[in-house]
Write a structure and sequence with these properties.
By secondary structure, this protein is α+β, with helices and mostly antiparallel strands. The protein has one domain: Alpha-Beta Plaits, CATH 3.30.70.100. The protein is built from six helices and ten strands. The strands form two sheets. Strands 3-5-4-8-9-7-10-6 form an eight-stranded antiparallel beta barrel. The chain has a two-stranded antiparallel ribbon with strand order 1-2. A hairpin with a 3-residue loop joins strand 8 and strand 9. The protein is globular and about 45 Å long. The chain starts with a strand and ends in an 18-residue tail after the last strand.
Length: 257
Amino acid sequence: MVYYKLSDHTLFSFMPMNPVTTITFFKFTSLKNKMWAFKMMRDAPRVLQKIKGQTFFKLMGSGKNKGFNPLPDWSVYCLLQTWQDLQAADTFLQQSSLIAAYRAHCEEVWSLYMRSLRAKGTWEGEQPFLENEAFSADNSLLAVLTRGTMKTSKLYAFWKQAAVTQQVLHQSEGLIYSKGIAEVPITQIATFSIWQNTDAMKAFAFRTQAHRDAMKKTHTIQWFKEDLYARFQPFKSVGTWLGTTLLPQLSTENAKM
């Protein structure tokens, strides 16, 4: 929800008609550029707070390998943003001086545009992912974001279980990509994954013993102070990642808006 102040005493609420979520991954190689990226974790939010049409953002680091990992990956960072509409997202990602600066220091930049299908829970007390009903029935791709703030007393138990779950995740049929991301290493963590379809995601989530155990423990042990789960339909992909076009059917030339 975006609020506009009309007077000293009145607030007018506006619900975006076609909200869009983007996630942009940046890959750095040289030590100099990795140091620049780390410094930007402090400096970039000052710019991001002022972006027109943006309703939420998080600039995050990542964990080693593909999934949850308590050890940082100093070569990969990501920027998660929500927008009032597609035009606002395009304007920033195509024209902003901040993104231009990142491109100048990166080996790769990849942006994925998504429509929110479902979201449960909160992120620092907010629910940033407004549902967008303009999804395409012809597009079976599914992206999933899970995020949580850990209870300090549960850290060891969580990371022990996470190691087992991640081994199963990487062997899952239908998984296209996954990466662990974090605002604060170890304690404020998230995973982002892309699946060929909903059935593939559900097969991992509900039919693998390791993940069923993890879901059960989430309720019984209560690892998190706060958690969030969101599903998205990716609809546009710009750039390459890991040296390839991960979602060629959604590349700029082929994407159906």
